[in-house]
């Protein structure tokens, strides 16, 4: 096992005069078994390219590098750099002290096929995953830990309270599965909620996926409203368009499967 335990993380932070910063979502993985579990789920090795978001104290970073994969790791907190350089000494991890939300990942990764493996900071998780699925085709697989509630949104289907735009983006761009739930006790400090690891394997998005996502975005802004009302902002006669493609105009967005948004996008175009 290569991961850091709670005592080691505390000692590393103290030695560098640091404390976990809540505003940056710094809940460090403090259980080597879970680090191993994520690495096993990621199933990467020599010749693979891995991008990690939020290296933290480097526990997952080091374990990923130990598989022989080439690892690029982003970390926004420049205060952690000396600690990371110490932990990652002897590895060839490409450590980048940058805010990943400000990086054009497609350009920065420079081509090839990549797996994103990360224990994502809670405030970055959903928008980052959506952005990667929609705009970073180089990342062909994501193995990411997020809040359980967020994970449920990515895997939800129509009719579920968790179903919404993230579910539709995930379904149009990937096969997504919830691989493992993770209790608060494995983190330092402990978060208030459960987490989960999801695995997203990219599929070729169907034509019209972006338009379908935009329409879903408009419809879900008024989740409780019938589609004939909520779509009036994007189409002149929503009732006729909906009826024309066999969708009940009185249905609500949460009733429509992702494919129906594709059909709707084509009809509106
Ligand atoms: N990978 C480590 C682990 O599992 O222990 C740390 C995970 S911690 C949940 C999230 C990390 O992401 C923190 O170290 C935090 O500083 C970093 N982070 C937060 N926002 C970021 C951003 N926009 N870009 C890059 N890193 C970020």
Number of strands: 9
Name the strands of the widest sheet in spatial order: 4-3-2-5-6-9-7
Q: What's the structural domain tally?
A: 2
Per CATH, the class of the largest domain reads: Alpha Beta
Rg, nearest Å:
20 Å
Largest sheet features:
7 strands, mixed
Order of helices and strands: HEHEHEHEHEHEHHEEEHHHH
Tell me which oligomeric state these chains represent.
single chain
Mean pLDDT: 96
Query: What fraction of the residues are assigned to beta strands by DSSP?
Result: 15-25%
Describe the overall structure:
This protein is an alpha/beta fold and 269 residues long. The chain folds into two domains: 6-202, Vaccinia Virus protein VP39 (Rossmann fold); 209-268, rRNA adenine dimethylase, C-terminal domain (Helicase, Ruva Protein, domain 3), CATH 1.10.8.100. It has twelve helices and nine strands. Helix 2 packs across helix 3. The N and C termini lie far apart (54 Å). The model has no long low-confidence stretch (mean pLDDT 96).
């Amino acid at each position: 096992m290569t991961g850091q335990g709670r005592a080691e993380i505390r000692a590393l932070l103290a030695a560098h005069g640091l404390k976990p910063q809540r505003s940056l979502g710094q809940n460090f993985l403090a259980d080597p078994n879970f680090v191993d579990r994520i690495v096993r789920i990621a199933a990467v090795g020599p010749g693979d390219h891995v991008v990690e978001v939020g290296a933290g104290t480097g526990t997952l970073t080091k374990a990923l590098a130990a598989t022989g994969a080439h690892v690029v790791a982003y970390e926004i907190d420049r205060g952690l750099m000396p600690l990371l350089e110490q932990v990652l000494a002897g590895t060839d991890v490409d450590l980048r002290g940058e805010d990943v939300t400000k990086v054009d990942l497609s350009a920065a990764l420079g081509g090839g096929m990549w797996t994103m493996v990360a224990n994502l900071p809670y405030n970055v998780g959903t928008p980052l995953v959506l952005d990667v699925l929609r705009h970073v085709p180089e990342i062909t697989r994501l193995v990411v830990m997020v809040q359980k509630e967020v994970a449920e949104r990515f895997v939800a289907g129509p009719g579920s309270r968790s179903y919404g735009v993230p579910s539709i983006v995930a379904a149009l761009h990937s096969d997504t599965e919830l691989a493992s739930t993770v209790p608060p006790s494995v983190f330092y400090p402990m978060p208030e909620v459960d987490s989960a690891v999801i695995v997203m394997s990219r599929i070729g998005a169907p034509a019209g996926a972006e338009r379908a996502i935009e329409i879903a975005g408009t419809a879900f802004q008024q989740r409780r409203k019938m589609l004939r009302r909520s779509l009036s902002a994007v189409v002149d006669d929503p009732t006729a368009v909906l009826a024309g493609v066999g969708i009940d105009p009185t249905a609500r967005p949460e009733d429509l499967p992702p494919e129906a948004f594709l059909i709707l996008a084509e009809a509106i175009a």
